[in-house]
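Researcher: Go.
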Amino acid sequence: MSIAPATVTLSDQFARTLPELALAWRAEHAPSPNLLVLNERLAAELGLDADWLRSPEGLRLLVGEHVPDGVTPVAQAYAGHQFGHYAPRLGDGRALLLGEVVHPDGGTRDLHLKGSGRTPFARGGDGLAVVGPMLREHVVSEAMHALGIPTTRSLAVVATGRAVRRETVLPGAVLARVASSHLRVGSFQYARATGDVDLLRRLADHAIARHHPGAAEADNRHLALFEAVVSAQASLVARWMLVGFIHGVMNTDNMTISGETIDYGPCAFMDAFDPATVYSSIDHAGRYAYGNQPRVAEWNLARLAEALLPLFAEDEERAVEVAVESLGAFRGQYDDAWSAGMAAKLGLAGTAPAPLVDDLLTLLRDNHVDHTSFHRRLGAAAGGDTEPVRELFLDLAGIDAWLARWRALGPDADAMRRVNPVYVPRNHLVEEALAAATEGDRVPLERLLDAVTSPFDERPGLDRYAEPAPEHFAAAYQTFCGT
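Model: Structure:
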């Protein structure tokens, strides 16, 4: 049974609560909308009828041309540090918040478009997006969700029928994205820069109500909000590191208050383990390299603390003191989350001995061992079959000695299979699928999605989805932001 358009209920809570951060705007016309991919499970979670979303009116909703009566899409204002340089006015240059959907869990979810056309925040950009990068976000965000990592999610990707000029002329597309919210560190930086402490307070209170309601009970609720964001980001980045995920563009406008991963631009999954790995074509200095991600997260959180200082205490010196103390918890929380995750990946109860982990990481780096393959094969070694792991190494004496130390601790092979994925969005397979889909062949995309959305279940016929990239591909691979 189809849902009539009038029953697609969206609220405008963000726009009503924070009008200073919401600019009413409309999506550009899509000449010929064509559904490329629809996330039926997510649609069902949100109470949206998949059949209606496939209809002409549903597609018009997904590209922003049809919105329910009484709802006005808005472009959100925010600031941000981009590669360490502060930009006081960024905002949704090619995106619109259609509104919020009530989720069955009682919370709300943003329904947000990406690639819907220029807004006054667009600066020199055209405000559009193309098929490949929007499908990349769909694939990677759904893979992250399947891995149990907090993330924004893709509801649909719709081709617009508009040609978009990048290095070449490419087919345009709009991504319909769902998130707990799109509040970010940059939102607070923007509010602080206005000098309006009331706006900053309202934004903080909105974030508490939306994401961290427990903070409302604290003596200093805004400091408690900051501490909750620190904790959420420590956990999130530890999870990235454990699966070898590289965000690629950890600017402050890409760090959420909810603790969800956002903005899958030049992202990638690491092949051979190396903390210095960088894939992004614009990260020339390696600021956002795999191994730098925890430090960058802490730096970003320091920028959030600076923005919130007027709410921490009336006395600035006292505000700085409590901010520094609260930020200081990040490293311990990150280390605890990462250490617990590594112990689980190694099949060990409690905490893995630090020398054992350090020696392993050195072996992986020095032998250029594929990160995902190693951890999955290690499960077989826990059961006594060490050959699948040994064949990944040139230093056989080194890995044999390490395996002996590790096996003496009694690793649990079954537990390891539950946390070490077989399938992640391998970079060469993602590029293959996106290139085919851009040319109109969606079969490789569908096969890749099938693999990465059930990442822990090894299945026949999917061997190539578990294999590392060919050496020549991995050596030269770069990712691009897609704007």
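Model: The radius of gyration is 23 Å.
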